[in-house]
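Protocol step 4 of 5: obtain the predicted structure for the target chain.
Materials: sequence only (see below). No template structures provided, no constraints applied. The aim of this step is simply to have a reference model before the mutagenesis design in step 5. Sequence pasted as it appears in the construct record:
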Amino acid sequence: MNLSNTGSNFTTAVYRDTLTTAIIKNVITVVLCISINYVNSTLVYTFTKHQVFNVNPRYILYIHLVINDIILLSLFTLLQVLSYIVYTLNVSLCIVLVMIAIFASLNNPLTLAFMAVECYIAVCFPLHHTQICTVRKTYVVIGLIWAISILSILPYLFVALATESLEFFRSRVFCLRVNVFRDPNLTVKRDVSNAVFMIIVWLTLFYTYFRILFTAKAAAKDAKKARNTVLLHGFQLLLCMLTYVYDLMLQGLTYLFPKEVLAIRFTVSIFIQVLPRFISPVVYGLRDKIFRNYLKRYLFCTTSATTHPLTTLKRA
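Step 4 output (structure tokens):
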């Protein structure tokens, strides 16, 4: 441990790993990032190349979720690597990176909620599904999701601009949300908005799940599959919520094991920021027969003939 001035009016304790430990941690993070983003990028590529996907609202919402995962994982890896190379970043640059990460993290639970609603409409109102869930309306929903996320995060920027000095924006800090948005009122605002988001999304998931569950009792295969999909959405949402207890987990574990602060920060970050990104490819990329048949061609760079997804769709 040594002492370092981060550009503010106070001196903070700086904990640094040994060179070997730093290399091991960054290799683990970068390898995980490249592996997960390779699969997710293949999903996006598959989506863009085949009409059967980009005219289906379900897949459009799914790819929006995957793109947000790519953004989150890429930013997490970038910030971690930079923290070992230069340790501190310019405050203005850090604010831009943090705001993009917050946009993406807020988008995920909202997207999961709308995906659950789409499943509910498909199962409970099948005759009206094509009229209600159109491609145009789906992109409007995605625009609405981004608008809600942007409106939620803009107050952070406005408060920072109003309360911080120009010198602060020129200084350098260890790039964390709490280090660039320092007003205590913003913490309260964050907790309240997160609670509102989570309550709305969880109520949506519970309502759609139980409505689909009652429909599934009629032994409809599609309804049972939709019920399982909504359950997976709930599990994804649970993982999303871990982001909101990140600071609390760090504080609690650091209090219990003060000498292991670096190991705790790395382990918690991998568990909360990286591993949940594994889930999205599984939900549709592996479970969905149509996506799986096309995905195998690109994921493993094979050209062997596979069952045509439209044929699979008809059999399903």
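Step 4 remarks: DSSP finds 15 helices and four strands in the chain. Strands lie at 2-5, 11-14, 89-90, 172-173.
Proceed to step 5.
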